[in-house]
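Researcher: Predict the fold of NAD-dependent epimerase/dehydratase family protein.
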Amino acid sequence: MILVTGGTGLVGAHLLLHLIKNGANVRAIYRDEKGIQKTKSLFQHYNKLASFDTIEWVQADIIDIPSLENAFVGITQVYHCAALISFEPKDENKLRKINIEGTANIVNFCLSNEVQKLCYVSSIAALGDLAAHETITSEETEWNPEKYHSDYAISKYGAEMEIWRGQQEGLKIIIVNPGVILGTGFEEQGSGQLIKRVGEGLKFYTYGKTAFVAVDDVVRIMIQLMESAICNERFIIISDNITFKDLFDTIADTLKVKRPSIEAKPFLLELYWRFSWLTHLFSNKPNNVSKNTVRSFLNQTTFSNQKIKKTLQTSFLDVHQYIRDNFSVR
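Model: Structure tokens for NAD-dependent epimerase/dehydratase family protein follow.
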């Protein structure tokens, strides 16, 4: 039987959809009923409610060791998708607790239960830092502890260290490092918030860029890697490196709203995150834009997907077409 952690999140829910479609016996961890409803809604969206009922749900938390005991009974493979995504400085301790300590718990249970293979969903945030002579980030780019990293990036890097520790102790592992993941059903999380903001009339854009990928490609490749003899490797999973202006224009055209038309210069973004922080400080309103968010919108890093393309002889969905196919106004 296959265990999926984070089955109520974007990647985990889509992974469950694909695993069930392939006829797998699946158990998924959930923390509360509300989370299960999100996954159920995704299955309903794809007219797969009957398949949803075949999932065995176990209430557990990756940082609560006793609750994981029952979840691992009879498990042969684990997809570890559960994580906290936050760029708020106040969440530093929670990020380390959930992403690093939680991953250590999963690794330990895999080892003690003789799980055959573990797939961990990391992030491009956990990849290395370019040296002066380098221009493209790959799986071999070395992490430089002297460079600045967000708390989120540090937590995902720390989680990867736990995965490699498991590998050294005899566990077969796969690490995937997706870019920004685009997918349906989770509009209040991650990339869903970007799409929502553009739909609500976002006015600003930047020429910063990052790597994007459709969730369908992420889960398809995860399953292929887990079903293959490939192990003890990490793979960057991205479709393309795209500027935020290009992405926002495609989203706006798809949603039939006005494109963002004002370039947000670095100094303007610096002012904005400070204003947002002050507003949060004195009014208790949510801080929608952090310093780390600003950094991401100005980023110019280019990521390589050549390793996974060569290893699996695979190609990726076009991100722009994926947006048009899945987010258009009906």
